Amino acid sequence: AQKVTQAQTEISVVEKEDVTLDCVYETRDTTYYLFWYKQPPSGELVFLIRRNSFDEQNEISGRYSWNFQKSTSSFNFTITASQVVDSAVYFCALSGPYGNNRLAFGKGNQVVVIP
Amino acid sequence: GAGVSQSPRYKVAKRGQDVALRCDPISGHVSLFWYQQALGQGPEFLTYFQNEAQLDKSGLPSDRFFAERPEGSVSTLKIQRTQQEDSAVYLCASSRPTWDKNTEAFFGQGTRLTVV
Fold it and tell me: Is the pLDDT of residue A49 over 70?
């Protein structure tokens, strides 16, 4: 069975502060994929990143960065210099060896950026 | 179309009523998924199609839930004899073939179902 745990439910930060969202996963697959999605108030899930289990290189995309540590089964997400537009729910998700088939989502982190 | 389109956006149903939720995937996407998202929770997988074939329906919570994609494009999720616990947002997603590991699922805005 696959499981994703996002411990923090709601996080409030003041604009321009950094915020880190923790994601811990469990899987028996040796090949798997990890994802982060953003869900703004409009409701659709917006894809942010996909990482496969063999690629532990950290990634930076603008103000977003991801830290994948296989040894601790974690795939954490940091928003640097947060902006009001970053206010949303962020989901970490896990799939098996076939990529995006059947995603297992965490409960999500509600991020509120205060101007 | 430009993205995954779902209709209706909102649906209020009386307990016991049947409902049908529609999903128009991105043109050319062969894979289609349905998820159920309860309030304050992450989406939960319901079912998966590749073209018109329903390859995985293990997430459907009961036999009152039925999904189809007869021509391999538009999909309909039907819920019979709705109950209050069916109240949730139903999300549809589509993607290129799932064996294409360099693709991701694109989600629609969902249908918010409220059973009263």
Answer: yes
The CATH number covering residue A100 comes to 2.60.40.10
Q: Are B93 and B35 in contact (CB under 8 A)?
A: yes
Q: What is the CATH number of domain B5-115?
A: 2.60.40.10
Pairwise pLDDT comparison (B111 vs B28), residue with the higher score: B111
Burial of A20 (0-12, 13-18, 19+ CB in 10 A): middle
Domain that residue A91 falls in: 3-114
- What are the sequence ranges of the domains in chain B? 5-115
Range B60-87 average pLDDT: 97
Give the chain B residue whose CA is nearest to the CA of A5.
B42
Which of B101, B102, B111, B113 is best to mutate for the A interface (most A CBs within 10 A)?
Answer: B101
Residues B25 and B86: their CA atoms lie apart, in Å, by: 23
What's the distance, CA B5 to chain centroid? 11
pLDDT surpassing 80 at residue A99: no
User: Under an 8 A CB cutoff, do A108 and B42 touch?
Assistant: yes
List chain B residues with CB under 8 Å of A99: 98-103
Residue numbers in A near B105 (CB within 8 A): 47, 100, 103
How far apart are the C-alpha atoms of B92 and B34, rounded to whole Å? 5
Which among A57, A58, A54, A5 is positioned nearest to A30, based on CA atoms? Answer: A54
